[in-house]
Amino acid sequence: MKFNTKTIHGGQKPEATTGAVMPPVFMTSTYEQSSPGVHKGYAYSRGANPTRTALENNLASIENGKHAFAFASGLAAIDCVLRTLKPGDEVIAGDDLYGGTYRMFTRLFEKYGLEFSYVDMNVATNVKEAITGKTKLVWVETPTNPLMKIADIKAISTVVKEVNSAILIAVDNTFATPYLQQPLTLDADIVMHSATKYIGGHSDLVMGALIVKDAKLAEDIHFIQFAAGAIAGPMDSFLALRGVKTLHIRMQRHCENGKKVAEFLSNHDKVEAVYYPGLENHLGHEIAKKQMKDFGGMVSFKLKDTSKKAALTFLENTKVFTLAESLGGVESLVSHPVTMTHASIPEKERIKIGITDSLIRLSVGIEDEEDLLADLEQALSL
Ligand SMILES: *Cc1c(COP(=O)(O)O)cnc(C)c1O
């Protein structure tokens, strides 16, 4: 099956007793056993729940993986990956990570003895140079949040595996979604999603996911998920599965609108810089063109007026773009990374990588393009 068909049918079959096309929301914690230990594959819902299974099979299908796991949040999914490591192990990560990922690395896992180094992954050889004898995991985000930096997944996998084929490559695919890129086909080992974003797509749930091909890795992840317990519930699993079924058509419009917004801002005299991988002057444009089907709906930009006041005036006055955290829903959102998503990154670090007061991030939704551009124009004119 091709991608669009898989979003709807991948890993799905009608429900066995009634033929229901959508899986029921199995609101159950436990399952009858005919004899101790003898059951139909479900014993307790921390281990597995049929609604969650239906979603997981679908996610495995659209990411070209074999095994998927749905978690209580994106961060719970990342937490699970890090728990496969042990004290003294080292992780190489990108230097422009989602703020919550950075917070987890620095404020939780450093305490438990994991070591982290951060490199600019726009250049694959930077990753190679950071490898030591203790490196066990490379954590890649592409495009990054909020600067939309691009990492070449295939090139990174190649250089890393040349040095040590046991080092795992994990890709946070939240911004791109499997519609735009499928890291497992680019030799990554683990795909992670904040399904809260485009996978769910309707800003009505918080969820995470991991998808892998390797059976042993799947076994380790399932054990940690079962033993630590950060599972997705059945109602959220149902909503996420419903969301996935329109992922491809939502993404098509997100990409169209994202491009229009990026072009509009590029030509606006109050705008200093626009960060969108679809723009030819974007640092990662060539890699993005090769690696992604299209360029997505996330657009960041800097105002020429570098005062915080100018940014706040814009942020407080958009009308179609709602000022809110999060991204990837059908509605357009605007956010201020410095005070919102990236507040947990120390000021010196932020400024070093370019997250300044004048940086604004847009999650461009699937509304009419004319309304989105008119809204940006009026807010910029204030
Ligand atoms: C939101 C987000 C996360 C964290 O996911 P939650 O579902 O909020 O826990 C991780 N990575 C990226 C890129 C995100 O946007």
From TrEMBL:
<keyword id="KW-0663">Pyridoxal phosphate</keyword>
<dbReference type="InterPro" id="IPR015422">
    <property type="entry name" value="PyrdxlP-dep_Trfase_small"/>
</dbReference>
<dbReference type="GO" id="GO:0003962">
    <property type="term" value="F:cystathionine gamma-synthase activity"/>
</dbReference>
<dbReference type="Pfam" id="PF01053">
    <property type="entry name" value="Cys_Met_Meta_PP"/>
</dbReference>
<comment type="similarity">
    <text>Belongs to the trans-sulfuration enzymes family.</text>
</comment>
<dbReference type="InterPro" id="IPR000277">
    <property type="entry name" value="Cys/Met-Metab_PyrdxlP-dep_enz"/>
</dbReference>
<keyword id="KW-0808">Transferase</keyword>
<dbReference type="InterPro" id="IPR015424">
    <property type="entry name" value="PyrdxlP-dep_Trfase"/>
</dbReference>
<dbReference type="InterPro" id="IPR054542">
    <property type="entry name" value="Cys_met_metab_PP"/>
</dbReference>
<protein>
    <submittedName>
        <fullName>Cystathionine gamma-synthase</fullName>
        <ecNumber>2.5.1.48</ecNumber>
    </submittedName>
</protein>
<dbReference type="InterPro" id="IPR015421">
    <property type="entry name" value="PyrdxlP-dep_Trfase_major"/>
</dbReference>
